[in-house]
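writing this on my phone so excuse typos. first protein, seq and then structure
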Amino acid sequence: VSTSHLQLAAFALGTVGWILCTVSMGIVEWRVWHVDNTTIISSGIAWVGIWKVCFISYLHVSPGYEEQFCHKLSGYDSFIPHEIYAAQGLLLIAMCMGLLGLSATVFALRNVYMGITHKTLITRFFLVGGFFYIMAGLCVLIPVSWNFYSVTHNQSIAFPPSYYMPSSPAAQEAGAAIPIGIVAVILLLLSGTFSLSYRFPVTANTITK
């Protein structure tokens, strides 16, 4: 029977990495903006994600209550910087590639643990799974690195007046989505490396076709 404990670990790591990729894509805390004018942004903090921008305001709300206002970011908005456009597309691609990697790994592991000794088939599916894991990891790495660079250089975004957002923050910091994305990258790349390292043991009953 083929030993594939490392590839089983690859599946576990890939699953967690894919989930974290999905989480980072969904949450709004990519960039945390600190603003000086608290007339509308009452808390002085706004969150800039890849799909929407949110802040808390007490304006037009009963005393003692607060409300979170969000504006969606559309692919047709010309003011959106390139790193956010890239994040929108690449994270969707990463999600699909990660899912394909998981599917290929599940199929290969199924054959291994059911005792099917079809060397070429099993090896190819592990290689395909590893390829998709690594591509998914790279698709997450690019937008995470690019947005982190924008945060560290305090780059501005020319929001339209209807967003009630300043074009430049007083300061900004990386939100939770960026470290989550970094962990997802590490797990997906490890998963891909483990899958690609699979070597089918040579036995007398191995089917090579």
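second protein below, same order as before
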Amino acid sequence: MDFNGTWKVYSEENLEDFLKVLGAPQMVVKMRKDNKPVITIEQKDKDFTCKIKTPVYTQTFSFTIGKESEVMTLDGRKIKCTVREENGKLISENDKFTSVREIQGDEMIETVTAGSVTFICKSKRVSSSPDS
């Protein structure tokens, strides 16, 4: 499981409905809909640092597999959850959603379910080094 690198989001299915289910303000929904992020992940064993960047904002958060951490939601809120690794996938759950992030070739696919809405985010690896 190698998540290291820079990833460019090219597809976001059900983003608007997903953000609404989470209670994101309409301004945040519009901003996210209009700006596909670039995600940089630095992975050192079980420690991860993620940087999500759009022309409008940059968010950075860190987590360690198996330990409760504070992570950032799509609409910028901080939540506590524990990320675990299963079969090469990163899985995080809390009372509002379940997220599964996996690598398929040079793509990273994140599937997030909140209630009856599933959001699917697809990214292409543009660099295997997080410093690029």
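Residues 41 and 50 are 5 Å apart (CA to CA). thats all i got for now
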